[in-house]
Amino acid sequence: MRRFVITGSSCSGRTAVFDYFKRTNGYYTLADVACYLIELEDWRLSRKRLEERAALPINSDASVANLLEAWNLRMGVKLEEKAVFPWTDTERFLERVYKLQAEWEREIPSDIPVAVFDGSLVDCAAQYNLHEIPVPRELADLVRGAIYDTVFLFDTLPEKYWEGVEVDGHILNPYLQDKPIHALLRRAYEEKGSNIIEVGFMSVAERVALIKGSIG
User: Fold this and answer.
1) Which residues of 172-182 are buried (b: 16+ CB within 10 A; e: fewer)?
2) What is the pTM assigned to this prediction?
3) Which residue, of 78, 102, 190, 198, has the greatest Cβ tally within 10 A?
4) Which CATH number belongs to the domain containing residue 125 in this structure?
5) Mean of pLDDT values over 194-216
6) Contact, 162 vs 12, CB < 8 A?
7) Contacts 24+ apart (CB under 8 A), 83-91
8) Cα dihedral angle (95, 97, 103, 105), rounded to 10 degrees?
9) How does pLDDT run across 146-204, given as a tens digit for each residue?
10) End-to-end CA distance of the chain
């Protein structure tokens, strides 16, 4: 199996490119784990609030119910527990991310010829460095044992494409916030000895063509 990683900051436009491979037959894809967990926590928190208002269980379709069951089994989370987000409990959230990332990577069927990842275990370690939290020994060991054939490191999009975001009365510039993680990602993959292909600012179609050409 060949493993290809699309990585970069949240202002790099990588999601649009990854979504192409997710929609295209012939590619096994692993989505961004952090985004998955945030969406699941959002849903879990909303469901809890609705149940509290109605004092009755909320009917859910099977797919959503299965998501919640999988979440509870993997993370040991009960519905009444406080939701965990990167902005409320960074260290606990990062732990959940790398543990689920490792599980997803282990679960890839052995007969899959090509897998495309939106981030990897190396990204998890870079996030610990970004927040100046020591990388857990378990994660460090997982990173050393992981194999990625090629890493496509997306450059941050030009600042003019991003607007300030208001958080608690303060205007944050996502472009400035994302510059440090880009450098940390590059360093982390370099330290692992990965084959890194720098992907500059270009259209989604051009970025997709570059990656497809490398995959072959």
Assistant:
1) eebbeebeebb
2) 0.79
3) 102
4) 3.40.50.300
5) 93
6) no
7) 83/41, 83/42, 83/44, 83/45, 84/41, 85/38, 85/41, 86/34, 86/38, 90/131, 90/133, 91/131, 91/133
8) -130
9) 999 999 999 887 766 665 544 444 445 555 556 788 899 999 999 999 999 999 989 99
10) 13
Give the C-alpha separation, 92 to 75, whole Å: 11
pLDDT, greater one: 150 or 61? 150
Which residue, among 159, 193, 152, has the nearest Cα to 176 in the 3D structure?
Answer: 159
Q: Is residue 80 part of a domain?
A: no
- Total Cβ atoms within 10 A of residue 146: 17
Range of the domain at 12: 2-33+86-215
211 in a domain, yes or no?
Answer: yes
Range in 12-26, 96-110, 124-138, 175-189 the model is least confident about? 175-189
| Residue 158 placed within a domain | yes
Q: Which of 102, 136, 135, 124 is nearest to 34 (CA)?
A: 124
Q: Give me the long-range contacts of 211-214 (CB less than 8 A, separation at least 24).
A: 211/4, 211/6, 211/17, 211/21, 211/116, 211/152, 214/4, 214/150, 214/152
